[in-house]
Design a protein that fits this description.
Largest sheet of chain A: 6 strands, mixed
Helix content of chain B: 25-40%
Number of strands of chain A: 34
Radius of gyration of chain B: 34 Å
Number of helices of chain B: 6
Number of domains of chain A: 5
Number of strands of chain B: 6
Protein name (chain B): Ribosomal RNA-processing protein 7 homolog A
CATH architecture of one domain in chain B: 2-Layer Sandwich
Structural class of chain A: alpha+beta
Shape of chain B: extended
Strand content of chain A: 5-15%
GO molecular function (chain B): RNA binding
Distance between the termini of chain B: 42 Å
Organism (chain B): Octodon degus (Degu)
Number of helices of chain A: 36
Largest interface: A-B, 110 and 90 residues
Order of helices and strands of chain B: EEEHEEHEHHHH
Helix content of chain A: 25-40%
Subcellular location (chain B): Cell projection, Cilium; Cytoplasm, Cytoskeleton, Microtubule organizing center, Centrosome; Nucleus, Nucleolus
CATH topology of one domain in chain B: Alpha-Beta Plaits
InterPro entries (chain B): Nucleotide-bd_a/b_plait_sf, RBD_domain_sf, RRM_Rrp7, RRP7, RRP7_C, Rrp7A_RRM
Oligomer: heterodimer
Strand order of the largest sheet of chain A: 3-4-7-6-5-12
Shape of chain A: elongated
Structural class of chain B: alpha+beta
Distance between the termini of chain A: 16 Å
Chain lengths: 1146, 280
């Protein structure tokens, strides 16, 4: 009988306070479990709610101590606010290694050291003879080509030292790694070991033998291989302790050559150390072609030689300065949240430490700085310095034999030299990775400068997974296809350099190709760095093709997306042939209006939806043309979700064009209204107040063309009425337009009289529009419906002072004071706030073309989850607007897909209980005003609704969430969003294709007590359902356009009428849920409070019956009769009423 | 929550339907087809104060729990066999004090959507009340001879009804405005008459319409005056002039910082409790 957790939230069992429990992403399951247990104690809820601080006078005004003053001053100088300081301190506490664990790790390290030294040596053998290797261990390296000269023997290392972040105490929890450098004895190596991967072979054999011995030791829980920083030539050995300490630490062993063994001049970026004859396995033709340099290969050797030296440098710089260490730790968190630190060429902790060392050496950072200041300075430096053009160097010597920075720029995309002047620390970093780092740094500096209240959260605590940061995602699968691409792009020297790793060899040229092709459409191109694999010592190392798929992320430039044309040079210029070669058959000669004849590429795209997907066309074309990657291997993820907001039978557009058409028609109408002659008062303003007019209606209206035979006629009023023997006619929702009339002394000052005068105006308006413009009109007391070009508008006349009149209350002394009443608030909302909001969001759409798509997807999803009734249109639109106005730490979304993902993440992670969501429309609020809103919010929290949205026009009351959602509905929404997000992200990031994208749009129905099935015949919007029905009914619309002079049936939606009746009759007993877009089922949840037997009360007998319980006679709901009422009230519409739960006696 | 297995009875030992003390239960169903029925709980209408004309003592039946598909006409028809019915009034809640009914315009006060309601049924003779209280057989709202629309048919019917007749609306508005203008004109004439004329004690009422208009008596106006006064005073005051003022501003600044610090600490506490400092 245990209720499903979600159900419990919705229902709001008795005694539950009207507050929300925070649901964190990823912890939903746990939370669910918690909430399905007994209600938490009231005390714990009060704790989790922020309360305004109350300090006594004495506490506030006591004499400050010296210590306090110092701390305040320090905060002012070193951090930008006390909150930030506290937050940074807390974060560091959370990720720093505790002393206790450190002691345990130290003990383990000592043990490791002893075991390594005890490994016995072996006799010398040829390198290719590996039979001596014990069984059960494989060499952790692809030995291609296999044959090399040289011989190997194992001797214990001469020196074992700990390097990396652990001794610097900048390592971060979780996943503590300790790096140990093992210096191989000189006797193992020979002079020419630098050549043809011989050194790397020996290194791998050394590890393999070591692994075999250490694996037999009971001290270790697991002994595995991995690659050092993802480099395929450099395996390392991972050791983890046995037993409960297994997750405490991972020790990584890196063998390295004895110091000064290799001559540094052999390892300059211009030198070759992998001979083509050996690598390609053929005798050199001897055409005198010089051997290609192998800069990466050389760097990898150099890295091994410099391990100890770098360690000394870093400990000298960071050694005593706690602020610098904190800074490095924060930067590591920053990088990790942005997924920048993993894989080959990642921007790892070592690089960032070296960068801090560089900035200390150039005096940009001082050792007394705080961690926050270090973070800030490094970000500032990264944002402003482009290392792909101007490399930096730690080297101070002026030795002329050293290569220049320019030499390094020739060989590497990103240059940052260490203090020897020979090693490029950023050798593996690709240009696009560095640009991504720069982009992130730039965003972060802006965020820090903006003094936002939640800067810390956004900067350091928010994850930025690829699928949520980039507008479009692109998978290339299978990866083995890239090998062919390497040959096509003539990258053999690079392959030789990279030891056969075709993925890293092709990355640079491939990204450069796409960047050039996408041009102005692209803001940033990023590639995934596949995670470093780990494997058992008895297995072969993973192949290159095992790394899954290559994933690219495109951040689009909204301005560039509107054009379908790629303009090339004029036909007679020499550049024209380059252009032709680049675009291949797509390039054509075109004559332009200014007379120029140019090369150009024109993409096929008519609607905004297709234009958004032009990058898809560009990418597939270029990859097929230049890299020999066919279309079937490119999985482009950008428009999958768009199908949800495409109208029925529509495949080429997501409705932006249809919305624009409706808005244009509205503009025409407002012009007519302005110019109307014969009104007693002139029109002072015409404002739209409907979702269509702010581009956020899920399904845009289409011009109506009613078939007369399908309807009943009302000749004298030129109206059509629904007929009971036909299916329900198409649903036409009139678009509300507010028409303000000028103020005048003639207006009466009495609410009832004002309503009559307004009605008179409505009649007059209809009359004049018909007379002067021949429009079909229909006037009622509150509005006038106008049919124009197939669209129906509902004009509401408004008088500015009317809310004021409704507010007036006269006290007994004759003083007139103003008090808000429900009627005045409603009127003010409809005639003042709604038009303002509509025009602000209309403006937002002009700035961000993706706004419409995101808002509609979000609304669609909420409604599909049957929660559309609890959340008003405006409230959802505002939440979406917040994604565009406050995108930090992202950039404003340029595609519906990424915007929708962020909507889900915002809904599920925002702390609705303790924070207002401030939507700074038109950027009207200053930072100080926002602070004021926040403090006002805290003081008034208990009086405000559970979900609070603040705008510049509405700083105190949160107009759009006053009537809902309730705490239970919001809680349910948060839970659903938190569950949908990971599912959807996983689908989109799956390189094999997303599968069924509609999964997250289907609502869970098992939580409801009763399901009312409706008959599609009377659901006018049946075709809009998430899963479009195969067949539906004719809705009385003509295919051919024909001017209609009869007013169609307006706002007639049987399910909605039915729902209002149900809510009115049984609202005290149950909650009703329905998807207005073609839902075929209404979900009913009983309210448990109303099912408690109650003593008889005359005012609350609604639907109840009397039963005897023991001696007493009590009231309980008459469930059986109510279930039959459901069918009676919806006769014709209701197909079946299914009572599904066992919990209510039926 | 209704626990299963617990014995519940809807009928008393004599086989009669249970009803609250003082009421009698009358089963009611929509039509023959329904198996379960709702129960109307009815009793004679009694008020302490003198009998009002619209709901006379003895002849009025007070009915609770009238289902949404049962309209005034319908109830009247159902109770007709007990005796001729004079009037039926349906409303949301039972009212304690009878309020005067004003006839509401159908254009400006649309009919509310019905839920469960209470009814006051006035019979022509007192015997009707007694007969109604003795009813035991289920009443049927919709029968073959008097079908009641529900569901889709009702909505289509309602849609047709909701289409307003502009002419009727115009007439309504015109008559109302005529009456309103007349009322205003009368008031004005009366005010003009009284203008400047002292009452018995010699007081003269000053209005906005006089030769020298005064401030309107509204809250907003008086607040405005107070605000102006306050600003005038603030302008004259010297700030940071005396040493004690300096000291106080400094102290005030410190107090602000302390307050902010306390707030921040609370916020941090909360975040820590929610484990918000785990970055990943």
């Amino acid at each position: 009988m245990g209720p499903a957790p979600a159900r419990e939230h919705l229902r709001g069992a008795s005694g539950e306070a009207e507050v929300l429990e925070p649901v964190l992403e990823g912890t939903v399951r746990k939370k669910n479990k918690m909430s399905s247990r007994k209600r938490p104690v009231a005390g714990s809820q009060a704790e989790s709610l922020l309360q305004p601080v109350k300090l006594s006078r004495e506490e506030l005004y006591k004499e400050p101590t010296n210590e306090e003053l110092n701390r305040l001053r320090e905060t002012e100088i070193l951090f930008h606010s006390s909150l930030l300081r506290l937050q940074v301190e807390e974060l560091l506490k959370e990720i720093r290694l505790s002393e206790k664990k450190k002691d345990r790790i130290d003990v383990f390290l000592r043990e490791v050291n002893q075991r390594i030294k005890k490994v016995p040596s072996t006799p010398e053998t040829e390198l290719i003879d590996q039979a001596w290797l014990p069984a059960g261990v494989q060499v952790p390296l692809h030995q291609v080509p296999y044959s090399v000269k040289g011989s190997f023997r194992f001797l214990p290392p001469t020196q074992v030292i700990v390097v990396g972040s652990y001794p610097l105490s900048t390592c971060t929890r979780p996943n503590i790694n300790v790096d140990i450098a093992l210096t191989m004895p000189k006797e193992i190596l020979q002079d020419k070991d630098l050549l043809n991967q011989r050194y790397f072979r020996k290194r791998a054999l050394y590890l393999a033998y070591l692994a075999h011995h250490l694996a037999q030791d009971p001290l270790f829980g697991s002994v595995r291989f991995s690659y050092t920083n993802g480099c395929h030539l450099k395996p390392s050995l991972l050791l983890r302790p046995h037993g409960k300490d297994e997750h405490l630490v991972t020790v990584r062993l890196h063998p390295c050559p004895p110091p000064d063994f290799f001559r540094p001049c052999r390892l300059l970026p211009t030198k070759n150390n992998v001979r083509s004859t050996w690598y390609q396995g053929q005798s050199h033709p001897g055409d005198g072609k010089p051997e290609p340099p192998t800069p990466h290969y050389n760097t990898w050797v150099l890295q091994d030689t410099a391990l100890e030296y770098h360690m000394q440098l870093l400990s000298a710089v960071l050694g005593s300065a706690q602020g610098l260490k904190d800074g490095v730790t924060l930067l590591k968190v920053w990088l990790r949240q942005r997924e920048l630190n993993t894989g080959l060429g990642g921007f790892n902790g070592f690089l960032i430490s070296m960068l801090v060392a560089f900035l200390v050496s150039t005096r940009k950072i001082h050792t007394t700085m705080s961690g926050y200041q270090v973070l800030r300075s490094v970000l500032q430096f990264l944002a402003t310095t482009d290392l792909t053009i101007n490399g930096i160097s730690l080297c101070l010597s002026t030795d002329p034999s050293l290569p220049t920075l320019a030499d390094f720029h020739q060989a590497f995309p990103v240059v940052f030299l260490d203090s020897s002047g020979r090693l490029n620390l950023c050798a593996d970093v690709t240009a696009s990775t560095y640009h991504q780092v720069q982009h992130e740094a730039r965003l972060s500096t802006v965020l820090l400068d903006s003094k936002a209240d939640d800067g810390f959260q956004l900067l350091l605590m928010t994850r930025k997974p690829m699928v949520r940061s980039f507008d479009h995602i692109l998978h290339v699968r299978p990866v083995s296809r890239l090998q062919a691409a390497c040959h096509r792009l003539k990258l053999c020297p690079e392959l030789q350099d990279n030891g056969g790793d075709y993925v890293s060899a092709v990355l640079g040229p491939l990204t450069a190709l796409l960047e050039q092709g996408l041009g102005t459409r692209l803001q940033l191109l990023a590639h995934s760095r596949p995670p470093v694999p780990e494997w058992d010592i008895s297995q072969d190392p993973p192949k290159h093709k095992d790394s899954g798929a290559l994933t690219l992320g495109l951040l689009l430039q909204p301005e560039g997306l509107t054009s379908v044309l790629e303009l090339g040079p004029e036909a007679d210029q020499p550049k024209a042939s380059d252009f032709r070669q680049f675009w291949g058959s797509r390039s054509e000669l075109r004559r332009f209006q200014d007379g120029a004849i140019r090369e150009a590429v024109v993409w096929q795209a008519a609607s905004l939806y297709q234009k958004r997907l032009i990058p898809h066309q560009v990418v597939t074309h270029l990859l097929a043309l230049h890299a020999d990657i066919p279309e079937t291997c490119v999985h482009y993820v950008g428009g999958f979700l768009d199908a949800l907001i495409q109208g029925p039978k529509e495949t080429s557009s997501t409705g932006e064009e249809a919305l624009t058409m409706a808005v244009r028609c509205y503009d025409d109408l407002s012009r007519l209204l302005w110019g109307l002659e014969g009104l007693p008062l002139t029109v002072s303003a015409v404002q739209g107040a409907h979702p269509v007019l702010r581009y956020t209606e899920v399904f845009p209206p289409t011009p109506v063309r009613p078939a007369y035979s399908f309807h009943e006629h009302l000749r004298e009023r030129a109206l059509l009425l629904p007929r009971s023997d036909k299916p329900c006619p198409a649903y036409v929702e009139p678009m509300t337009v507010v028409c303000h009339l000028e103020g005048s002394g003639q207006w009466p000052q009495n609410a009832e009289a004002v309503r009559r005068v307004r009605a008179a105006f409505q009649l007059r308006l209809a009359e004049l529009l018909t007379q002067q413009h021949g429009l079909q009109c229909c006037a009622t007391a509150t509005h006038t419906d106008v049919l124009k070009d197939g669209f129906v508008f509902r004009i509401r006349v408004a008088y500015q002072r009317e809310p004021q009149i409704l507010r007036e209350v006269q006290s007994p002394e004759g003083m007139i004071s103003l008090r808000d009443t429900p009627a005045s608030l409603r009127l003010e909302r409809d005639t003042k706030h709604l038009p303002l909001l509509t025009s602000a969001l209309h403006g937002l759409q002009q700035q961000h073309p993706a706004f419409s798509g995101v808002a509609r997807l979000a609304k669609r999803w909420v409604r599909a989850q049957l929660l559309g009734e609890g959340l008003t249109d405006e409230c959802l639109d505002l939440v979406t607007a917040a994604l565009f106005l406050h995108p930090e730490p992202f950039t404003p979304p340029s595609s519906p897909q990424v915007g929708f993902l962020r909507f889900l993440s915002l809904i599920s992670t925002f702390d609705w209980k303790n924070n207002p969501l401030i939507v700074n429309l038109n950027n009207e609020l200053t930072v100080e005003e926002q602070v004021e809103i926040r403090s006002g919010f805290l003081a008034a929290r208990t009086r405000l609704p559970v979900m609070v949205l603040m705008t510049p026009q509405d700083r105190k009351s949160s107009v759009w969430t006053q009537d809902g959602p309730s705490a239970q509905i919001l809680q349910q929404l948060v839970i659903l969003a938190a569950e949908a997000l990971p599912i959807l992200e996983k689908q989109l990031m799956d390189p094999r294709g997303p599968g069924d994208i509609r999964t997250v749009f289907r609502p869970p129905l098992d939580i409801y007590d009763v399901l009312i099935r409706l008959s599609p015949r009377h659901i006018p919007r049946h075709r809009q359902a998430v899963d479009c029905p195969a067949a539906s009914f004719c809705r009385g619309q003509l295919k051919e356009p024909r001017p209609s002079s009869l007013m169609p049936v307006l706002g007639y939606d049987p399910p909605q009428i039915y729902l209002t009746q149900l809510r009115e009759a049984f609202g005290d007993l149950a909650l009703f849920f329905y998807d207005q877009h073609g839902g075929e089922v209404i979900g009913v949840l009983w309210k448990p409070t109303s099912f408690q037997p109650q003593p008889f009360k005359a005012s609350s007998t609604k639907g109840h019956m009397m039963v005897s319980q023991g001696e007493e006679v009590v009231m309980v709901p008459n469930v059986e009769a109510i279930l039959e009422d459901f069918a009676v009230l919806g006769e014709g519409l209701v197909q079946a009423v299914e009572a599904r739960s066992e919990r209510w006696t039926v | 929550m209704v626990a299963r297995g617990k014995k519940r009875a809807t009928r008393d030992p004599d086989g009669r339907v249970l009803s609250p003390p003082g009421y009698s239960a009358i089963p009611i169903k929509f039509s023959e087809k329904q198996r379960a029925s709702h129960y109307l709980y009815a009793r004679e209408h009694r008020v302490r104060e003198g009998a009002k004309s619209s709901r006379p003592q003895k002849r009025t039946l007070f009915v609770l729990n009238v289902p949404p598909y049962c309209s005034e006409e319908c109830l009247s028809r159902l109770l007709a066999p007990c005796g001729p019915v004079q009037s039926v009034e349906l409303q949301e809640k039972p009212d304690l004090v009878e309020s005067p009914k004003e006839s509401k315009s159908k254009f400006f006060h649309p009919k509310p959507i019905p839920g469960f309601r209470v009814a006051y049924v006035v019979f022509q003779r007192p015997s009707g009340v007694a007969a109604a209280l003795a009813l035991r057989d289920p009443l049927l709202v919709s029968t073959e001879s008097h079908p009641v629309l529900s569901g889709v048919h009702k909505w289509i019917h309602d849609y047709g009804d909701s289409v307003a007749d502009p002419e009727a609306l115009r007439v309504e508005v015109d008559t109302f405005m005529e009456a309103y203008d007349k009322k205003i004109a009368e008031e004005e004439a009366k005010a003009k008459e009284e203008e400047g004329v002292p009452d018995e004690e010699g007081w003269v009422k000053v209005t906005r319409r006089g030769r020298r208009p005064v401030l309107p008596r509204t809250e907003a106006a008086s607040l405005r005056v107070l605000e102006r006064e306050r600003r005038k005073r603030a302008r004259k005051e010297l700030l940071n002039f005396y040493a004690w003022q300096h000291r106080e501003t400094k102290m005030e600044h410190l107090a602000q910082l302390r307050k902010k610090f306390e707030e921040d600490k609370q916020r941090i506490e909360l975040l820590r409790a929610q484990r918000k400092f785990r970055p990943y």
